[in-house]
Amino acid sequence: MSESHGQKPTAILFDFDGTLIDSATSVLAGLQYALTSASIEARCALDASIIGPPLRLTLAKLAGSDEPALIDRLAAAFREHYDSDGYKHTEVYEGVPSMLQTLHDAGVALYIVTNKRILPTLRILDHLGWRDWFKAVYALDALQPPAANKPALVATVLTRHELAAGRTWMVGDSEEDRRSAETNGLRFFAAQWGYGSAGGAGLSKPAELTLAAGVNHP
């Protein structure tokens, strides 16, 4: 472990789906709605394993086609369902609210970096009453032009907020999250309660992150 890894974090970047929230039920319902609207049968399993990549990539995989006009139609149908009501059925992993509150109260700057679109991300945060815990919220489509991928998004966050890599941690559930952290020189923690199977130091429950950060729950 490097010397910087022994320091307490001044900032933590969090993935969203599969790390802080479980949106599987609501997202899968929206994806099924989109496919049904176009009379398409899913070309792969429609389960939690499909969640994570950007929406258009997920729809292309499910439809077995990346034809732009088709993906446009499917994406519009998904958004119609998810953005109006589906997002309200998002579930929260046990222990996450307490973890976020504790870290925030201890003065750690918290950020979200997600492949989820910015509109439903912000609506979910407002629905849950979490917005005040985060210094900023970033999604690929929140930038103009959109970020090419999550490693690039993380790099933008570090630059914009002048975050020191040696004092910034990242928490996520996917291999993409791990790569995003490593590419940018951040210490990475795998949220083992989430969807993915990211390598790296694992957390079996959210409270372990506060302990690693040297912050105790009240």
Main traits of this protein?
single chain; 8 helices; two-stranded antiparallel sheet; alpha/beta
The run of helices and strands is EEHHHEHEHEHEHEEH
Distance between the first and last residues' Cα? 29 Å
**Are there runs of 5+ residues with pLDDT below 50, and where?**
none
Strand % is 5-15%
Secondary-structure class: alpha/beta
Question: Biggest sheet, in brief?
Answer: 6 strands, parallel
Q: Report Rg.
A: 17 Å
Helix content: 25-40%
Overall residue-averaged pLDDT value: 92
The helix count comes to 8
Strand order of the largest sheet: 5-4-1-6-7-8
Q: What is the β-strand count?
A: 8
How does this model look, in words?
- With 218 residues, this protein is an alpha/beta fold.
- Helices cover 40% and strands 14% of the residues.
- The protein has 8 helices and 8 strands; from the N terminus they run ββαααβαβαβαβαββα.
- The protein has helices spanning 24-37, 55-63, 68-84, 96-105, 118-128, 150-160, 175-183, 207-212, and strands at residues 11-14, 21-22, 91-92, 109-114, 136-139, 168-172, 187-191, 201-203.
- Strands 5-4-1-6-7-8 form a 6-stranded parallel beta sheet, with helices on both faces.
- α7 links the parallel β6 and β7.
- α1 (24-37) crosses α3.
- It is globular.
- The mean pLDDT is 92.
Task: Provide a short characterization of the protein structure.
40% of the residues lie in helices and 14% in strands. With 218 residues, the chain is of the alpha/beta class.
Secondary structure layout:
Layout: E1 11-14, E2 21-22, H1 24-37, H2 55-63, H3 68-84, E3 91-92, H4 96-105, E4 109-114, H5 118-128, E5 136-139, H6 150-160, E6 168-172, H7 175-183, E7 187-191, E8 201-203, H8 207-212
Parallel strand pairs: 1-4, 1-6, 4-5, 6-7, 7-8
Antiparallel strand pairs: 2-3
